[in-house]
Amino acid sequence: MNRKTRLLSSVIINLIVAAATTGVITSYFMGNITNVNFPHETLYFFTTDSNIIAAVGCVLTAAFEIAVLRGKRDSVPEWVRVIKYSGMVSLLLTFLTVIVFLLPLFGEETVTGTSFHMHIAAPLLTFASFVLLENEQKLSFSRIFCGMAPMLVYAAVYVLMAVVIGYGNGGWTDFYSFNRNGMWYVTLVMMTSVTFVLCASTRLLHNHILSHRDKRASVAVLPGAASFGK
């Protein structure tokens, strides 16, 4: 797949994810959600927050990729790639949490309707676009901590609102059941560890695919260069 095809494919996926996410979240504020008292409470959920971060990353990535395709830029800026990376990791964490924890606990409602996009489609599409199509520069190891930032910030807020303050004092209910049997600290360690593994593994895969493609490109050039020298 040449660079133009990769960029165009990435633009299409990014715009699809961003448009679908915008549509789903807009529908929440129009009453298409039943598990909250007020529409703004959808922002209490990591699912919503992670999808918003990813959608912002998708829009920015698509905008700069279009500029590259038009010859206005050479590449997508690093800060945009970091936002997309952070959103992708957050969505993968959402995906794994739903599949491993919430689906067995709450049933198929976690993967049907609008939840299918927020919990399944958006994470997989964002992962595919970032790892397979948007690997033009390597991610440094330090970017792992950028990828972990959304989860760590959300975890701090969740513990404060659902555990320290609690619903009876104006905080949140433990809607993710992360403090079941008072074991919130175990959940925190587990989620932090899983997020680190997701950040590290997707970074390695992203960089590996880039290195493999560069290696194939250099090998393809060698025969022509050799014949030119004869």
Short précis:
The protein has 230 residues and is mainly alpha-helical. The chain is built from six helices and no strands. Helix 1 packs antiparallel against helix 4, helix 2 packs antiparallel against helix 3 and helix 3 runs antiparallel to helix 4.
What does this structure look like?
By secondary structure, the chain is mainly alpha-helical. Helices cover 73% and strands 0% of the residues. The chain has helices spanning 3-28, 46-69, 78-106, 114-133, 143-165, 184-229. Helix 4 (114-133) runs parallel beside helix 6 (184-229). The longest helix is centred in the C-terminal third of the chain and has 46 residues, at 184-229. Mean pLDDT is 90; it is low at 225-230.
Can you lay out the helices and strands and say which pair or pack?
Blueprint: H1 3-28, H2 46-69, H3 78-106, H4 114-133, H5 143-165, H6 184-229
**Overall shape:** globular
Radius of gyration: 20 Å
Strand content: under 5%
Q: Determine the fraction of residues in helical runs and give it as a percent range.
A: over 70%
The end-to-end distance, rounded to whole angstroms, is: 30 Å
Order of helices and strands: HHHHHH
Multimeric state: single chain
Q: Given the helix and strand composition, which structural class is it?
A: mainly alpha
- Detail the poorly predicted runs: 225-230
Number of beta strands: 0
Number of helices: 6
Please give the largest β-sheet. Answer: none
The overall pLDDT average reads 90
Record keyword descriptors for this entry:
single chain; 230 residues; mainly alpha; 6 helices; globular; disordered C terminus
